[in-house]
């Protein structure tokens, strides 16, 4: 509705910078952020438990790897809805957290 008002009043979107246009188009309300955080977090837990349960099936090691990885990625992505991906990455690589971040990334994606 705000875009329609700007166009009708003669204010052009090109007056805004690219960053302002992207932020204007991608902002979510707090309720939407909270709902998607819960959805992703619950999906992450579900996939992790499912992967662990599939571990004991014949050939379940591959299924475990896929579902457990999906669960971890969904749980990590859920926090992006609360604070945003850029802020999350900045916090992950702060001076006090960089060692834990590097250890987590290396241990998750290092293949022996």
UniProtKB/TrEMBL annotation:
Belongs to the SFT2 family. May be involved in fusion of retrograde transport vesicles derived from an endocytic compartment with the Golgi complex. It is a multi-pass membrane protein. It is found in: Membrane. This is Vesicle transport protein. Its main location: membrane. GO terms for cellular component: cytoplasm; endomembrane system; membrane. The chain crosses the membrane at residues 36-57, 63-86. It comes from the Eukaryota. One of its GO terms (biological process) is vesicle-mediated transport. InterPro entries: Vesicle_transpt_Got1/SFT2, Vesicle_transpt_SFT2.
């Amino acid at each position: 509705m705000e875009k329609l008002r700007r166009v009708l009043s003669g204010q052009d979107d090109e007056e805004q910078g690219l960053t302002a246009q992207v932020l204007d188009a991608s902002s979510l309300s707090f309720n939407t952020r909270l709902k998607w955080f819960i959805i992703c977090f619950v999906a992450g837990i579900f996939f992790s438990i499912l992967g662990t349960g599939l571990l004991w099936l014949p050939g379940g090691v591959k299924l475990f790897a896929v579902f457990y990885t999906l669960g971890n990625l969904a749980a990590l992505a859920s926090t992006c809805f609360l604070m945003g991906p850029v802020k999350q990455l900045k916090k992950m690589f702060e001076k006090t957290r960089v060692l834990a971040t590097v250890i987590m990334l290396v241990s998750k994606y290092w293949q022996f």
